[in-house]
Each structure stands twice: as structure tokens, then as C-alpha cells.
Amino acid sequence: MLTNSTCLFLLAVLVLLCPLGSVTGQAGLQIGSITTSGSVAARHNWGIVKTLTSGTSLEVPLAGSGTANYVITVTRTTAEQKVTVKGEFTVQNQGTAVVTPQPTVTFSTAPSGTSAVASCDPAGDLAVGGSTRCAFTASWTDSSVTAAASGTLTVTAATGETAQQQYNIAIADNNGNCATLMDTFSGGTLTSAANAQSIQYSTNLSGMQVCDAADPSVQYAYTVTFSNLDAKFCSTPATATNLATLTPVGGTMPAQTDSQTLTITLTGCQGAKVTVGNIQTSVINSFSWALTKTGGGSSLTTPPDQELSIPFTITATRTQQSTVGTVAGTVTVQNTAAAPATISTVTVTVSGQSPTTVPVSNCDSATLQAQGTASCTFNVTNPSAPAAGTVTATVTLMGASSAATSPAANFDYQTATTLDLGGTATITDALDTQNLRTTAGNLAVSLIRVEPADQSPPSTAPGLTLSDSRTFTYNVIVGQLARCTQTITLSNVVTLTPQQGSQQGSLTASAQATFTVVGCDVLPNVALSGMQMWSAVTWNWQMQKVATPNTYQLQPGQGGSANYQVTLTRNRQSGNYWLSGTLTITNPASYTMFISSVALTSTAGQFGVLPPNCIGGSSIGATTTGMVGSNVVAATGTVGGVVAPGVVGAVSWPTTGLNGAFELRAGAQVQCDFNVSAGTGAPPQGNIQAMATTATGIISSAGNVAYSSNYPMNFVNPTQQWDISGCVMFSDTATTTGFAGTWMPQLTGLPSQQQICESRTWTYTGAITAVPVAGAICNQPVTITNNAQALPAGGGSVVSAQAAITVMAVGCPVASPTTPIPGPAPPLPVPPPSTSIQPAIATVNPGVAAASAGNYIWSVSVSNSVGPSLEVPYADSRAVQYTVAAVRAEPTAANTVTGEITVANPNIGPLTVSSVTVTLATSSAAAPPPVAATCPTPLPITLAAGANVVCKFSATVSDTGSGQVSAAVTSDAGSSSSQAVLYAFGSGGGAASTGECAVISDDLSSPLLQALASNSSVAVTDNRPAGNSMKVCDDTTYIFTASFGPFSETACRIYPVVATAKVTPLSGPQAAKPPTGQNQLNVEVENCPGKTASATSKLLVELAPPTATSNTTKAWKVISSALLPQPLTINYKDSGNLRFNISWAEVATVTGFLSGVVTVTNPTESAVNMSAVTVQPEVNGASGENAGAVPGVSAACGSMQLLPGASTTCTYSAFVSFDGSGAVQAEVALSDGTTAMSSATLFTFEASGAAGDSACAEITYGLMLGSLLQLPGAAGAMSYNVTKACSAGGIVLLQPIGPFKDDQCGQYMVASTVRVRPENRLQGYFATVTPG
Known about the structure:
There is one protein chain. Residues 1-26, 441-446, 611-660, 815-834, 1014-1019, 1091-1096, 1182-1187 and 1322-1327 have low confidence and may be disordered. The strands form 17 sheets. Strands 34, 36, 39, 44, 48, 50 and 52 form a seven-stranded mixed β-sheet that branches. It contains three helices and 90 strands. It is mainly beta.
């Protein structure tokens, strides 16, 4: 019996040399000797189960022992048995006819249906007397190796001949027949290694070999005794995990394991003594507070210059809520046992109350050594305080059967500590005068007082401390307001904050008073002046042109004049209209007015709220915020007839709501300049009127809106008008199509560059050149087409109109007889004048070209002298030769004849042409078939009377001999042919072959190596010619050398180096997409000190070609920043300028997207632990710039273990800000510190979307001045500005500030604001705000 313990399958081989028999049938086939070989494969599966029959827990006395019972069950099953039989034999044709053998082999021991068809060599028909060699293979699965090991095989030919052979297969030892059993305590707190003296087996199973006894199963029962366990297990039970391992001997079945965990509890460890001492008591009183406030009033009124008294009452009430006592002390616990113990629970019981559990963490130690002690503190609530009582403590030790209780200890409250919670509170009373200050424009603090002053709580923290209930009663006096106002609200809020109580936060109460200063019933005076109308009108033009007459007949030697009439009409296409002027508002009253908004109205509707630029005297105030008008100037105003100092500043009204109001004091006047849009389209009509709206509460009997007088709008005759495309430059040109013999008439004397600025109709004349006395062909119409153009000044589309005339020579002298040019078409006779419909006339135009041309085809390749990889010691260098080869393939010439044909309608009515063809005749080859000409519009076409059309043709001939071409035309009046025209190759015309010369260039790229240059490592040098490019006109090969190294001692890794060559033809189709060639070299820097050996041999890393797409988008970008250091510090007495730089640009953003798969395979015989997979892209920009190595991206693998022969796939994706091409490489990091790398894979980005057309944008920019505008004189105003941007631009904004008053010191925020609104709406609106 043959055995082999190291193979996966069992093998048995037998070779038989003699057949049992051979039969020759009538067909004459004879089957020769049969040789066979066979094999049997068998495999076993093993299993193991461990059972803890005595249970999973065990109690063991501290000084005694305990026993646990275990059973191990081992099973063995046969997984698979497979029989394979192979053999060969010969077949000879001894008959008299050709036969195809096709023998079939069957086996006596195989399952039904198992057979093999032998394949023969030679195959197919077998000649008489011929022989062939046939082979077969068959396999089947059998449950019994013995039954499958012998039998008889039968070979049957297609014609019925048979032969048999006995096969006997010896059975080898089964691989993996035995297994080794191991059993040990390897887990938990009790292990065989650490506690060998405490663990005793009844039977030692470790190392025992199990064979056939386990088929199908066998059990092993044993006991384990645990004794003399460590006392440390008194506090924490011990755990013992028993692991059984069954390892097959040979085969591929992995080791099988099973385990059981036993929990062991020690008994006899407990004993304690408990006492209570150090008792202390305390009493806690809790209070709550309530707060009310009354007074104030609504709809109160007061005349100007009088005082208004407003009463308020505050009541703070304190109430006692509860009294609670506490008992605190110490519980002392002593361990009376000989072994350490652990405290499990501690409870304290106050007489008359339920027990209270004390956290074990209150003890200074939860673990008690033998005879050791621990102290535990407690503090429990006693709701029955201040009654006296007793306290006891109960302690339970871990594992104890009962708890230990202390003797009772007495306590009382004679010396108890008392604590009042919430016994005191602080109170403040704040009067909010913001509404009074902002509405009336005064600092209201100087107008308010409290009486009596000592009856109002303080307005600010820390306030007044209360230790009991209290009531406050006082009056707020608002005194002598000089201006009429809208409704004013005074909010009076009192805040009470309890101290150290259960009430969280503060209590508040409020009372409000609302009042108005009444008695103002005068409206402001509103007037408009300096009104100007502005308009920008866009015009469009229309043109008509006619020729009268449109047909001319001329005698030889006679010229003529063509008459034309042109009408140019100018129409208003669109208009933009603006209205500017000055709005004057005067306050005729003796009190201050507040204007909330100013607007313009018209009979066509309201223009809207104005943001005008206003100037005025010192009686002008402002309470608005935000961006305001520009054009700041100094002005003066009068108050009571006295000239007041000028105020530099500008004021704007809010565009919505009443966020602010414009203050106009008594007798003051303000003038506001405005420039507003009056609309688009047709000129606005009607009257305009200004209106000023007073703030709410200042209402006269006529309402709260004052109007100016009407002002008529006149945009038909505006102050100034800008005309867009208002004038045109008129020119007329003429083009002649066709000719009549030697006469090609021209039209001269037409107008050119004539300026016209209004609608106009006029006529002019052009001269027709005379008919030559000889050489003209009569009755052949020629068309002259006039193209009149009007080019709008200042831009706009060109307006054009056409008119055509037909001229024809008549009365020509009779020509002398001539010898016609031989060809397929006879000369075209001159038709006599006739009223019948004539066929269309075809003429081959002069200039027929004949040329032989093609396209040279280029290709380029790059190779290196070392192959795909190069190893370089880090301190050394290596040189590599690169060979660049460009190959030019000769063009395949095409002999082409090209030209034009004029097809004319000689009739006075329309004519339809259905076909136009050309026929070529050569002297040295057969004539090619007729070729259809290509006309401007597809045939059939209808020609107007006297009109013509020019069609083009291109035909290919087989040789370069001379020949002639003629044209034929078919119309609804019949067919006609032209005269033949000669052509010859090499006589000029036609295109030459393209791409004869090209520019070849190369590039060597390795971004990772180039990145090392910054660390003083020489990465790549080469000796290529300057510019790395040259012009070549034939096959070219050149060599350059690249040197790699030396490198730093930290540079060890693999660097992909890509050499690229490109050949760009100077012309031809390849010029747009030049051919390229690439070569990749992986340079591995090695032998760095301390560098772990490469793991490339451990893992196979493969990188599939990635998916690479790119997308280009266009978007507007805005940059806004302050030019001065932040923050800007200025002395209040000084003035200065804030400077902001705002710039904008439309930029194209290119985004490339890479995605792909990394496959990692473990080809070794042991497991390998991976920690990370990283993919490193390197990109070359499309414009040639090198983007370098972008940050690596992690593949979706993570940390894992690869078993022998296993593989895993990891996906990755990365975005880069480049397109073009590049390379990507994968690196796998192993847990032992080594790495494995793939080869670099090349990629080229494919564009997935166009960038789109550029779009202009509306840029709105300015400053947000915020609180600076609330400080009179602190800041000159700056407006927002709007501009249209179609390209990058910018501006510097200057904001004057200061000087300030001495009470205005502080910090103020100024921000620049920019809004971009692209016209094409593709990007949407966006805005940026940058604080300064």
C-alpha cells in the first residue's frame, strides 16, 4: 500500500499493458492494447465538543477543595471520496472502407451513466489500413473506496467493436486519519500556568492521539479538583476557562476547539463589627419670594413743555416654605475574619424613618484586610427635626450569610447648625428710555426724574438686598418735551433675585406707560425743482431694396445703368429713462417734524421710496442706519432766521417700515438730490409728484402725507438723449455670378460708407460694364446681385437687403467656324430669341483644379534601457537611457479634380432644376461614371427668371493624365450640356499632402521625486536638448539620459517615473490631436538605515485602470478685505479714512474625479495583517503644468487579516483640482511596519461637461456703517454702488470718520458688503460681508 501523509488527496496508480480482448467488426476496426491509471481521493472532517456535566458554578471552602466533572466528545466523518481513471489505446482500420472510430469507454464500478468519449489523434475519418491513438479520462464519486478500487472497463467503437480491460487500484492510507488532543486551563483568573498546584486532573488527556476510534465518535470523561485557592477570591469569585484543542495530523482541516468556563466561589471568608460615632445635626429653613408691579398707564397725553407724572408700586413678599433637619456621622467597620473581605452594602436608620443606603464610595476603603477597619461617612435627612432620636448602622460583607448591626447612638438638636435658604434677595428697578430717545431725538435721561427718589430700588446691579417683605411706591416724572412725537412707551421692569434658595434664576415684573405729545397739526411743504429728463434709446433698422427694371439686354460695345431704390426705416426698439432733480422739504411749524419716507408718484404709478442724497443745516438730524447716499457736501441752514454752522453728512430714509425717521426741526429746510429710473420701453408720460410721509402720531386733519405740485414729464424731448444704434453707415456692393463667353459684366459707382440717421427712401444708379465687341455669347443671362448693408453705429446687428438684375448680350455677330474640343458633350448652341421655355444652361467655370494629395500619418514611442523597474541604493545613483522614436507613414495619394458649375435660367419665368452632374474623360484610362454636383441647397431647386446658382463638384480619377470635364443639367424644360473644359495635374491648384513635417517633444515627470528636491535630494536630471523639442520631416530616433539619486536616508520607497513623447504634425488631421507615447519606470530607493525590509514579496498589490472624468465650471468670485490693521485705533479728536479693497473675477474651476479598485492578494503560506491601504494620485495639468502628488486617499479596506491565498478588493475615490493626465499608485501598510506597493497605472481625464459661456454680472458694493451713523458728525456717508462687470475688476472704497466727541469713545463695526448677480442666473445671487 502506497502512503503519502503530506498530500491533500490520496493517490493510487496502476498501469495495465494487455487488453482482456479485442474484436474486429465487419467494418474492420480493431481496438489495440489498453493502458490505464487511476486515483482515489478521500478527506476527513473532525469535530470536538466539551461539556461541563457538574454545572458552571462551584463553591470551594477557603482551606478545602472542590471537584468539577468534564466530558470531551470527538467525531470523525468522511467528507469526500473521488475515483479517477485515465487510459490510452490504439484503433486500426482493417476493413475495406473509411470509418470514423468515435470510441466510448464505460466502467463496471462506476455509477450508472458514467462514461468517457475518447479523443483520437489523428481525429476524424480513418483510412483503410490506418491507425490512430485514443485517450480518455473519467471520474466519479463512490461511497466505498474498496468497491471503487477495482473493475472492468469496456471500450466500444462507433461501429460496435469492443475491448475490455481489468483495472485494480491499490488503496493508500487516508490522509488526516488521526488527530492530537490537548486540554488545558488557559483563560480566566485560574490558569494551568499560574495555578498549577491548585488544579489537578484525574486523567491527563493532553498529547493523546485519536484515530479510527473517533469514527464516528468517542467520549473521554474526567474530573478536575480545585484546592488551596488564594484568599483574594473571597472578594471576587475565580473563573477557570478549560480549552480543548483537536489538531488533525496531515490534511488541510484546521484545528478544532471548544471550551467551558467555571465560576468558583470561596466560602468561610466573612465576619465584621460595626459602630456609629461623631454625630452632628443641622436645621435648614427654606423661603420663597413673590414679586408684583402695578402702575403706569396707556394712551396718556401731554402738551409740549409740560410734565407728566406716572405712578408705580412694587411689592416683594417673602414666605417660609419648610424646616428640615439632618443627621451626619461616621460608621466604623472592622473585619473580624482571618481573610480579606469586601464591603457590599452600608445602611443607616434614623429612629422613626426608613433605612437609608450609604454609597460604599463614602468609605475610605471598600476592601478590608484581615482584622482591618474602614470608616464610612453618612448624612441623612430627618424630616421630624428638631426632635431627638437614635441612629443605627448595618453593614453587609460580600459573601456573608448575614449582616452586622451597630449599637444605637443618640442625637439631639441642642447644638445644631441653622441654615436659611432663600432668606435674602436682591432687587433692581430699570426704566427703559430707548423708545423715548429714538423717537424724540433727545437724551431722555435728562428729562426724567423719580419722586420720592429714595422710594425707587437701584436701576443697576448689585441692587438693594432684602431680608424680609417690602413695598415701594414712587412716581416717574417725564418733563417738558419740546417736540410733538408719535406714541412713546416707557417700560419699567423690576428684577428680584433670591439668594441660595431653591428658586432658580430671577423674578421679574413690569408696568408700562404709553403717551404722546399732542398739539401738532401742520404738514411740511414739499416742492420739486431743477427737474431734468434723461433717456437712452435703442433703435433698430429695417431695409428694403428693389431694382427697376431687373432685366437688361445690351448690344456688343454697349454698357448700361441699373436703377435701385432703397428704403431705410428707423424704429424705437427700447428705452431707459431717468428722472433727476431736487426735492425740498420745509418745516413751517414751531416744533420738530419726523419724516418717515419720501417718494415720487406719477399718473402711471408710484416710482417707489427714494434713497436721495440730502444736504441741510445744523437742524438736520438722523436716526437711520445702513448704507446711505453719497455726494457729500457742506451746507448751511437757518433756525429762527439765524445762520447755523454747516453739517457735513448725508441722510437716507429706510425703504421699508419705520425702522428710522428723518428729523426736521422747527423752521428747518432740507434739499435732497435724486436720480431715479422712470422705466423702460415706451417714453413715460403724464405728471409726477413728490410726497413726504410724516411719522405715525404726527397727523393733521388732512392726513399725514404732504404733496408737491405736479410736474409734467417730457421724454419725447428730454434734457439729454443718448441714441444707441441711432445712425447707420450704408454701403452697397455688387457680385457677378456667371459670364457669357468673355463678358463678365460688373456694376460700378455704388454708394459706400454713407451715414444715415433717420428713416429715408432714395434712389441711385450703378454703371454696367459694356459688352465686348467680340467674344461675348448672346442670349446667355448673367446675374448681378447687389448686397446693401447698413451697419449701426455703436454696435448692433447689420441690416442688409439684396436686389438682383439679369443682363444678357444680344445681337452678337456670327462666329467663325472653329474646331470643337473633343469630348463627350458638344458645344452649346446659342438659342435664338424665343418665347418658349428653354432648358437650364450649365457652364463649367474657369479654374478647374487637379491634384494628388493625402495625409502623412505619424506615430511615436518611448522605451528605456532598464525595463519596468530600477533599484537604487539611497546613497548611490543610477542612469537610465530613454529612446524616443517617431515614425512617419507615407500618404496614400488620391487624384482629385474639383471645380464649380454655374447653372442659369435663360427664361423670363421660373425654372426648376432637378439634377446637375459632371462627366470626366481621360486619355489614358476608362472614364469614371458621372458625379453629382453639390449645390447650396438640395435639389430640386427653382430658379427665378434670369437667376443662376453655383454648384461645386469633386471627382476622383485613377491616374494623373490630363483630361476634360463637362457638365449636364436636367430641368423641367429638358436637359442640356456644357462645353468641355480641359484639366491637367501639376498645372496649379489643389491641395498638397498634409502633415509632411512635425514637432517632436518629450517630458519626464515624477512629482514624488520632484518633491524630494526641497529636501536637498537630487531627484532627476537629464541631458535632453534645450526645450526638449525639435522639428522633424522623416523618421527620427534620439536618446536622452536620466540620472536618479543620490537620495536622503528617509527617501526609501517606490517612485513612478513617466516619460511621455508627443509628435505634433504642422498640418493635417493629426495636428488637432497629436499622437503620444508613454513609458513608466518604477524607481525603488532601498537600503535606508533603520528602514524595515520591503513587504512587496509578502503581498501582491494590483491596481485596475481608474475611471477619470473632469468637469469645468465658471463662477464669479469676490474678495473684500480691509486694507488697514484691525482693529483701527483713532484718537477721538482726530479724523481719518477707512480703506476697503473689493475685487471680483470670473474664474473657471476644473475638478477631476478618480475612482477605482485595489486588489490585495496574500500569496504566502501564513496570514498577513494589513493596517491601511492608501492610493496616491499624481497629476499633470492639461496645459502642461505639473500638479504634483495630491494628498493620498484611503481605500475602503481598513485594518484586516489576509489568510494564506486570500485576497480582498478595496474601492477608492478622490477629487483633484486639475485635469489632463497622470498616474496612480497603491501602497499597503502592514502591522509589522513594512509596506507593499503596486505598479503605477496611467490615466487621462475625460471631460464630462463644458464650462459654459461667460456671463456678465451686476456688482453691488458699499459699506455698512451701522452705529457710526448714530453719532452726529462722526462719519461722512458713503453710498452703495452698482456696476456691470464682464471681466475681472476692483475698487478701493474710502470712508471718512471723525473727529468724535469726548463721550463717543468705544468700539464701532464697519463692514463692506458685496453682492454679485450673474446675468445668466446659472450661479445664482450671492453676497459677502467682511467686517472691518
